[in-house]
Amino acid sequence: MPDIAIQNINHNYGSVHALQNLSFEVGKGELFGLIGPDGAGKSTLFRILTTLLVPTSGSASVAGFDVVKDYRQIRRRVGYMPGKFSLYQDLSVEENLQFFATIFGTTIQENYHLIEDIYVQLAPFKNRRAGNLSGGMKQKLALCCALIHEPEVLFLDEPTTGVDAVSRREFWEMLQRLKAQGITILVSTPYMDEASLCERVALIQEGKILSINSPAAMVKSFDKPLWAVKSDRIYQLLLDLRTFDLAERVEPFGEYLHIVGRPGISQKTILDFLKNKNHEGIKIQPAQPTIEHVFLELA
Amino acid sequence: MRRLFFIIQKEFIQIFRNKAILPMMTVLPIIQLIVLSYAANNEVRNVDIAIVDQDHSSYSRLIIGKIQASDRFTIVEAPLSAKRGDDLLQSGGADIILTVPPAFEKDFLREKTADLQMLVNAINGQQAIVGAAYLGQIIQSFNRELMADAAPRLAAIRTSPQPRIDITYSNWYNADLDYKTFMVPGILGELVTILIMVLSAMNVVREREVGTIEQINVTPIRRWQFILGKMLPFLFIGLTLLAVGLTAGKLIFDIPTEGSLWVVFAFCLLNLSVVLGMGLLISNLVDTQQQAMLIAFFFIIVFVLMSGLFTPIESMPEWAQYLAVPNPIAHFVSVMRQVLLKGSGFADVQYQFVVTGFMSLVFNALAVWSYRKRD
């Protein structure tokens, strides 16, 4: 039985359709990623699944309980980390953890094994007020507080937004370890590069699901020719390539521009086109598709 | 139970760590109590009076002497013309103009009656009414003296002495009419109520503003536990403030404590539960601390001005008297005064207990109901 099952969920804020007929399932012990830009409806879905919001229509269950009828049961069994830091800034690290442990009727000692890896990093600051922690430390503390009652399902709403690259990587390593302990994790992120760290991902935009698959299969499904190009005048290059009739789409990608080509595109046809436009220092190479390419293709 | 205890502990930690709230609930109310009790004084002194004496007789000098002797009046000028008197009233130089007309003494002796004119600047109603009443008293007593003085001569003409009723009076429960004795208990009750209302109105909404409520709402915490956990620390603070305020009142103003302090504290507890219910209700319904503050402020102004603290409820129009029924400050002020000054026992303030108890049920039920864990 899936730990999260969503069937035809709709949610409207007035006339705004935040979620439109969403359906998918997350298996027990799965690390599932919800990938989409800001305003895609990710947080709304999280609020419905964590019983903070009643959906306009449709049904959903978490850990086998209905989100509308059995919300009390769900609250005991899930950990939730909202997108906005929402621990008590005027309480210390230890006091926050203690408080949430007590609210769930448990103690720090009882479930210390779950948070040990993370908490050792926080321990030197345990008497510091949560409001004075760095962004990465705040996220680690929030994760500890969401884990302290040994939840079956963990909801992480953009846990790495506004966190530095090193802390982000550490955070994902922690998620892999939690998954190894059998906790089902639903995580949302606007960063496409984090998608490859999930077992399965759902691409979501404007309240609709574009695609659900494993990251590898998703990338594999991208079957169009992809070329990375750069020259000395990169902005002019972008403008010129957008007039290139063999290029379906051109997007800046790091120091290169990526061309999603039409049939018939090749290194030679690109080079000819660019020489014709008087570009110098031209570099052309084939590129590997990523989730981002898939997303832009579907969006 | 353990959960509730931790919620309360958390609230206390937060309160004592908040550098703005702590002095706001300890030092400021005591300063306010002292300042307000000295300043909020209804006694009228220093009424500026100008006397236009057009008679210049021994009687007119006698009446001026009496006014001079009173410590309530300051004679600012003795203008020669009625015109100058009017000007003084116009310019605000004098609150009252007393005119002694020409032939005042002669009329009195001949006609047995004489007129005086009193013009009162009623812009400041209180000052005018009370000042005029004092002046009336002085003239009355002057009148009696003259009558007594003239009595032997009048007796020769009259067949029987004029009947007279003398009134003697004493002020119960506040023998010296000490204004502070009257005001301190009321002001204390008002301060405790205002503080607790503001603190509680800002509390839940603060969690909403900061975002912590989002995390709390996904926990198995029950609504009544959350609300009770918010209320108990404030009840404790309110009672402490009352104790400190009563001690300060006793030491500084020597206010009487005729009745049982148990009744005072018991009523304070009940009353604060009403105020907390109102505060938390406001807090649950608004989105920002600023909105909470404005709404709380609106109610506080109405509660204070209609509480009977400064103007008696009995002299308000009938509809306003009904408005005093759900006014927690009105009941608190009234119980404080009755118990502390008059020594009323529980039985005497039953009415206030019943009304307040009922309101406590209503507002706390509303507070729990309006706190929604989900949208």
Key features of this structure:
heterodimer; A: 299 residues; alpha/beta; Rossmann fold; Alpha-Beta Plaits; six-stranded mixed sheet; four-stranded antiparallel sheet; 10 helices; 14 strands; 33% helix; globular; B: 375 residues; mainly alpha; abc type-2 transporter like fold; 2 domains; four-stranded mixed sheet; 15 helices; 6% strand
Question: Would you write up a description of this structure?
Answer:
- The complex is a heterodimer of chains A (about 300) and B (about 375).
- Helix content of chain A is about 35%, strand content about 30%.
- Chain A contains ten helices and 14 strands.
- A six-stranded mixed sheet of chain A has the order 6-7-8-3-9-10, sandwiched between helices.
- In chain A, α3 (about 95-105) packs parallel to α5 and α4 (about 110-120) packs antiparallel against α5 (about 135-145).
- The relative contact order of chain A is 0.14.
- Chain B has two domains: about 1-40 and about 180-370, no CATH class; about 45-155, abc type-2 transporter like fold.
- Chain B has a four-stranded mixed sheet, with helices on both faces.
- In chain B, α8 (about 180-210) runs antiparallel to α12.
- The radius of gyration of chain B is 29 Å and the shape is elongated.
- The interface of A and B includes residues 75, 87 and 105 of A.
